């Protein structure tokens, strides 16, 4: 490519030594600021208690501090295009959704999910992305701006799960992980998949991560609920939940053996 550039530039016989060097300009990718991207939607803290979005949060028993991190819009399609002008797939005009903003470690907005309040919606979640940041590896990660690097990290499936555990980040969908975000230490982390022993995909993901040397929670018998929120709704306290996870965090061959028993339930 460079040779082709030289041929084209000097094909008229001009002297390379006396020719000024081209001025190559690089524009640094710019993330939308809070004032630009979130100004047209409503923080949950400004909605009345009777509002459907607030009632959804109450039914899910999400903690009060979660209300300060989430937003609401009655036209997610319009707002999503502000964040990602190329976004068209899956958008429905005038559809109300909770907005879950994704920030990097510096607090810059780079993506968001819209969570439907309609139980009959075709898609519960719609994701829109402003820019891809190299430090986020191969996934969209939620909770990085609140993450503490010196503490145990709970890696969970969804953003709502992070509200029930200390120092938690979400991989946003069950999967195997090739890399962790910058600042998330493998040795200080526990991966927490949903409690679904009959889900072959979940079992495969758990086996792969155990094989890669990660600590993975293999849930004990007798728990009611398939995910973290279900356990909270069933009456498990936040403190008890964290203890259950840490007590059942396993690695290596011991973990694979425990997983083989768990998946036969």
UniProtKB/TrEMBL annotation:
This is DNA primase catalytic core N-terminal domain-containing protein.
């Amino acid at each position: 490519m460079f040779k082709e550039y030289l041929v084209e530039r000097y094909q008229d016989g001009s002297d390379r030594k006396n020719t000024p060097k081209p001025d190559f300009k690089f524009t640094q990718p710019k993330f939308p600021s809070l004032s630009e991207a979130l100004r047209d939607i409503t923080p949950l803290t400004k909605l009345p208690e009777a509002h459907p979005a607030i009632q959804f949060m109450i039914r899910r028993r999400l903690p009060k501090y979660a209300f300060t991190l989430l937003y609401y819009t009655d036209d997610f399609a319009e707002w999503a295009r502000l964040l990602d002008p190329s976004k068209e797939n899956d958008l429905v005009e005038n559809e109300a959704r909770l907005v879950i903003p994704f920030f990097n470690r510096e607090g810059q907005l780079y993506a968001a999910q819209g969570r439907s309040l309609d139980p009959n919606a075709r898609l519960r979640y719609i994701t829109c992305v402003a820019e891809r940041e190299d430090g986020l590896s191969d996934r969209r990660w939620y909770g990085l701006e609140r993450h503490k690097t010196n503490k145990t990290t709970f890696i969970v499936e969804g953003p709502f799960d992070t509200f029930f555990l200390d120092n938690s980040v979400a991989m946003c969908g069950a999967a195997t992980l090739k890399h962790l975000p910058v600042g998330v230490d493998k040795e200080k982390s526990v991966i927490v998949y949903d409690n679904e022993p009959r889900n072959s995909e979940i079992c495969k993901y758990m086996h792969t991560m155990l094989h890669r040397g990660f600590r993975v929670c293999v849930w004990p018998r007798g728990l009611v609920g398939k995910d973290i929120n279900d356990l909270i709704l069933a009456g498990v306290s936040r403190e008890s939940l964290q203890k259950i996870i840490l007590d059942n965090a396993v690695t290596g061959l011991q973990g694979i053996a425990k997983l083989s028993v768990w998946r036969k339930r």
